[in-house]
Amino acid sequence: MLQRQLGQGFKVSAIGLGCMGMSDFYGDSDKANNLRVLDEARDIGVSFWDTSDIYGPHTNEQLLGEYFASRSGAREQLQLATKFGILNTKVGEGWKVNGRPEYVRQACEDSLKRLKVEHIDLYYQHRIDPDVPIEETVGAMAELVKEGKVRYLGLSEASHRTIERAHRVHPISAVQMEYSLWSREVEAEVLPTCQRLGIGLVPYSPLGRGFLTGAIRQRADLQSSDWRLQMPRFQQQAFDHNMQLVDALMAMAERKGVSAAQLALAWLLAQDPLIVPIPGTRSTKRLAENAAASECLLSDAELTEISQVLQAHGVEGDRYYSNPQLETLLFADTPELA
Ligand SMILES: NC(=O)c1ccc[n+]([C@@H]2O[C@H](COP(=O)([O-])OP(=O)(O)OC[C@H]3O[C@@H](n4cnc5c(N)ncnc54)[C@H](OP(=O)(O)O)[C@@H]3O)[C@@H](O)[C@H]2O)c1
Q: What is the pLDDT of residues 231-250, one digit of tens each?
């Protein structure tokens, strides 16, 4: 497996593994199967694993904890990322977040226990707390680095201003943002900021929550408990519109002899060497397919063709369902230090 480097020389597999769907949001899953996928990921070198305390809540970290406890030597072979800061993600309710220093410490202690590990390789603030100056939150995260509980620091859904301020307190190694063929907002300010500061960019939902792979052809393909059914881009009208984009991408992928998922990941990798996508899957077959995308190179002509396809079709629907409180948590800013 090819490697890439995030900020401060943190080396990870060029394509990581998002573990969220193994425990939450995307319908049923099976623990024995999840453990098989994790084994396979380790075997083929997809070693950069992503979780969060809110996935489940807690059960996704517990799954990884069970994995580490039962596979001797596994922990040392992996780069483990987890996150803190979101307390509630129920649809229809405001999301609750906490970036206060005392909470950062408690959340880290709790994650270490659930994960059954001595340290976390990359610790992200999952959502920026709009009530707490970023300097205070990152100051507390930096203490965890000093104590050896955490190796590198990251932020998720931060504005470029927040990233700059955080980076002045302690070097930030990775920023995790939604970034994919149908979510390109980071290209305006966040990606250039990461490039300038030498910070890795970790695209989450790099397959458009599965939609860009072409595997979801109708809403009925999703279980009734699937969170995606609530999301704007999966509402019927948007779904039908966006399917035209997917069909065009699939046709292009077929001509190239790759899958649409591989095309989507190869496109991200081509944007900058500091980009490391973390596709999520509960399938060993898809895991291998996604990993192979790290070897898939796109020519300038192909990149231009993709831009033209995106421009021709456009995307209907916001990334998240509409909620004014939730919007303050995307590309978020914080108050200045008093
Ligand atoms: N920072 C944040 O706020 C945030 C938000 C969302 C996600 N994340 C992280 O990012 C990771 C990835 O994002 P995501 O899971 O939302 O979306 P994603 O990676 O864009 O898509 C995952 C979906 O695609 C399907 N899939 C994966 N590979 C496929 C392939 N080759 N062909 C067809 N379908 C395929 C998966 O189905 P199966 O599982 O059935 O294979 C799953 O339904 C998460 O696991 C999580 O760790 C972070």
A: 999 999 999 999 999 999 99
